[in-house]
C-alpha cells in the first residue's frame, strides 16, 4: 500500500506551473436526452432526434433497457454541426434503442482492475495508463470506458465492488518512485512482476483534454519530476471541440518542453472517420482547393498544425472499426491518407471489445481485417503504418493476416486461416513476436469463437491463465481482455 504524503511541487515544477494561462471555452454541450425529450435543446438541434426516436427512447427510460444508464448521452455544438450531414458521425454519438436490445458483455472488459496497484492507475507493461477524468466533451456510444463514464460499480479481484476511482498526483507519483527504485535496486526488473522501469504514462479517462490547462500541466510536471520519460495524452477532443487546442494550451506545452526537454510528449488522437476532419460543401462532398487538396475543417486543421509544427510532439491516430461508422474501406483510406498528409501517424485500428451491448457495435474480426486491408490498397508505404489490433489478455495482438486458401497438408485450414501475432506482453515481454494460427470463422467476434479451431499456438493465446491473487482457475477467453484506455488505449 502506497502511503502518499501531501504533494509539494519542486521549484522547477512550480516555475513551470506559474506560467500556465487559462482560457474560457464555449463547448455548448447538450447533456443527456432530457433536453430532447423536453424540447429544451437549442431549437436548431431538436431535429437531431426524430419524434419517433424520442418516443421509443422515452419508453425505455428507467427500465433495464435505458440507454442512458448504459452510457450517458452527450454532444457538443461542433460535433453536432458535423453530424448533421454525416450518418456515420451521428452513429458515434446518437443514442439508439437498438443499443440495449442485447446487453451481453463485460462490465470490466479485460478485468483491468487486476493490474491496478493504485486507484486510477493500470500498470501492466513498461507503460502505465491513468484515469484522470471520467467524462469527455461528447460521448461515443461504443466507448470502452462506459463503466467509468457511467460511474458503474465494478467487482474487483479482492471481492469488493465499487466505482473506478481517478488517479491522484500524490499516490501515483509515490507509486512510480517506489516501483522504479525497486527496479533500479534489482538490476532493471521488478523482482516479483518482472516489469521494467515505469517509464511511460498515458493520461486517459474519459478525456484529459476536458481538464483545464493548469490540471494538465500539474500532471505533466509531476510525472516528469517522478522520472517518467514519455507522456501520452489520449484524446478525442480534436473531433469534439478542436477549439480547445488554442494558444494557451500550446504555450503551456511549449513551457513544459522548455522545462523538461528530455521528456517525450505524444498525442494519441481518436478519429474514426474522415467526416470528423474534412470540410464539406453544401452538396455534401468534401471541399477541394484549386490544386485538388482536400480541405480540413478550419479549427481541426489549425489544431493539427499546432502539433505538426512542434517537432518534439508526435501525433498519432487510433480508433476502433465499428459497424455503421467506419466499416468502409474508402472512408478509412481517406482518413489514413489525410491524417498522414497533415503530419500525423496512423497507429492502430482496433477490433471491437466485449463491452456491455457489444453486439450492437462490433463487426467480425476477419471482416475488420479485410476492411483495413482493402483500405490500404492505394496508400503509400508511409501512409499505411496502421495495424489491426485485438487486445488479448496477454497483451496487444495484431490480426496479422487472413488467408482464403487452405494450407496444403494442414487439417483445419480448408477455409483459410487467421494469423495473430503478439505485439505487447506484460513483464519481460517474452512472447512478443510469437504467432497463433486458427482456422477461419467469419462470424468470430472474439478469441473464444476460435477455441475449437486452433491449429498452432506458440503465442499461448488459447492456453492462458489469468493473473490471480486467489489461485482460482482462469476465466474463459471471452472475458480475457486486457488493459486499454478509453481514448488512447
Ligand atoms: S473515452 Fe473516448 S471513446 Fe469513450 S466516450 Fe470518451 S471520447 Fe468516446
β-strand number? 16
Share of β-strand residues = 15-25%
Helical fraction: 25-40%
What is the count of helical runs?
A: 14
Q: Architecture, CATH level 2?
A: Alpha-Beta Barrel
For this structure, what is the CATH homologous superfamily? Aldolase class I
Rg (C-alpha, Å): 23 Å
Strands side by side in the biggest sheet: 3-4-7-8-9-10-11-12-13-14-15-16
Low-pLDDT windows of residues: 468-483
Number of domains: 1
Shape verdict: globular
Write a concise keyword list for the protein shown above:
26% helix; TIM Barrel; 16% strand; single chain; alpha/beta; two-stranded antiparallel ribbon; binds iron/sulfur cluster; 489 residues
Task: Give the gist of this structure.
With 489 residues, this protein is α/β, with parallel strands linked by helices. The protein has one domain: TIM Barrel, CATH 3.20.20.70.
Describe this structure in words.
The structure is a single chain. With 489 residues, this protein is α/β, with parallel strands linked by helices. It has one domain (1-380): TIM Barrel (Alpha-Beta Barrel). Helix content is 26%, strand content 16%. The protein is built from 14 helices and 16 strands. The strands form three sheets. The protein has a twelve-stranded mixed beta sheet with strand order 3-4-7-8-9-10-11-12-13-14-15-16. Helix 1 runs antiparallel to helix 9 and helix 9 runs parallel beside helix 11 (247-259). The model is unreliable at 468-483 (pLDDT under 50). Bound molecules: iron/sulfur cluster. Iron/sulfur cluster binds next to loops.
Amino acid at each position: 500500500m502506497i502511503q502518499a504524503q501531501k504533494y509539494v511541487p519542486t521549484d522547477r515544477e512550480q516555475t513551470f506551473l506559474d506560467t500556465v494561462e487559462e482560457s474560457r471555452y464555449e463547448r455548448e454541450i447538450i447533456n443527456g436526452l432530457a433536453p430532447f425529450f423536453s424540447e429544451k435543446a437549442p431549437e436548431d438541434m431538436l431535429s437531431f432526434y426524430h419524434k419517433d426516436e424520442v418516443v421509443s427512447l422515452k419508453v425505455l427510460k428507467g427500465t433495464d433497457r435505458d440507454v442512458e444508464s448504459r452510457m450517458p448521452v452527450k454532444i457538443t455544438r461542433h460535433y453536432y454541426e458535423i453530424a448533421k450531414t454525416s450518418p456515420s458521425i451521428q452513429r458515434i454519438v446518437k443514442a439508439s434503442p437498438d443499443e440495449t436490445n442485447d446487453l451481453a458483455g463485460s462490465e470490466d472488459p479485460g478485468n483491468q482492475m487486476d493490474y491496478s496497484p493504485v486507484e486510477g492507475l493500470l500498470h501492466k507493461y513498461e507503460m502505465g495508463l491513468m484515469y484522470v477524468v471520467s467524462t469527455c466533451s461528447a460521448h461515443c456510444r461504443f466507448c470502452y470506458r462506459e463503466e467509468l463514464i457511467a460511474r458503474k460499480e465494478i467487482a474487483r479481484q479482492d471481492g469488493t465492488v465499487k466505482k473506478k476511482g481517478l488517479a491522484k498526483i500524490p499516490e501515483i507519483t509515490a507509486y512510480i518512485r517506489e516501483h522504479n527504485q525497486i527496479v533500479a535496486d534489482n538490476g532493471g526488473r521488478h523482482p516479483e512482476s518482472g516489469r521494467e522501469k515505469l517509464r511511460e504514462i498515458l493520461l486517459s479517462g474519459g478525456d484529459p483534454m476536458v481538464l483545464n490547462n493548469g490540471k494538465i500541466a500539474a500532471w505533466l510536471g509531476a510525472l516528469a519530476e517522478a522520472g517518467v520519460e514519455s507522456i501520452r495524452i489520449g484524446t478525442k477532443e480534436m473531433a469534439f471541440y478542436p477549439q480547445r487546442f488554442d494558444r494557451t494550451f500550446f504555450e503551456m506545452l511549449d513551457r513544459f518542453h522548455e522545462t523538461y526537454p528530455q521528456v517525450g510528449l505524444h498525442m494519441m488522437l481518436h478519429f474514426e472517420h474522415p467526416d470528423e476532419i474534412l470540410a464539406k460543401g453544401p452538396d455534401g462532398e468534401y471541399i477541394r482547393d484549386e490544386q485538388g487538396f482536400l480541405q480540413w475543417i478550419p479549427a481541426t486543421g489549425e489544431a493539427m498544425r499546432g502539433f505538426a509544427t512542434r517537432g518534439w510532439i508526435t501525433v498519432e491516430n487510433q480508433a476502433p472499426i465499428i459497424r455503421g461508422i467506419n466499416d468502409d474501406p474508402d472512408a478509412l483510406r481517406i482518413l489514413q491518407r489525410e491524417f498522414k498528409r497533415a503530419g500525423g501517424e496512423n497507429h492502430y485500428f482496433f477490433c471491437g471489445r466485449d463491452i456491455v451491448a457489444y453486439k450492437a457495435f462490433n463487426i467480425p474480426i476477419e471482416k475488420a481485417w479485410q476492411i483495413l486491408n482493402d483500405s490500404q490498397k492505394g496508400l503509400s508505404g508511409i501512409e499505411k503504418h496502421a495495424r489491426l489490433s485485438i487486445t488479448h489478455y496477454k497483451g496487444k495482438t495484431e490480426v496479422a493476416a487472413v488467408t482464403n486458401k487452405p494450407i496444403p497438408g494442414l487439417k483445419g485450414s480448408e477455409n483459410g486461416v487467421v494469423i495473430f501475432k503478439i505485439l505487447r506482453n506484460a513483464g519481460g515481454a517474452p512472447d512478443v513476436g510469437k504467432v497463433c494460427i486458427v482456422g477461419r470463422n467469419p462470424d468470430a467476434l472474439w478469441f473464444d469463437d476460435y477455441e475449437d479451431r486452433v491449429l498452432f499456438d506458440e503465442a499461448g493465446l488459447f492456453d492462458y491463465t489469468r493473473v490471480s491473487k486467489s489461485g482460482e482457475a482462469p476465466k474463459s477467453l471471452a472475458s480475457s481482455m486486457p488493459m486499454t484506455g478509453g481514448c488512447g488505449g
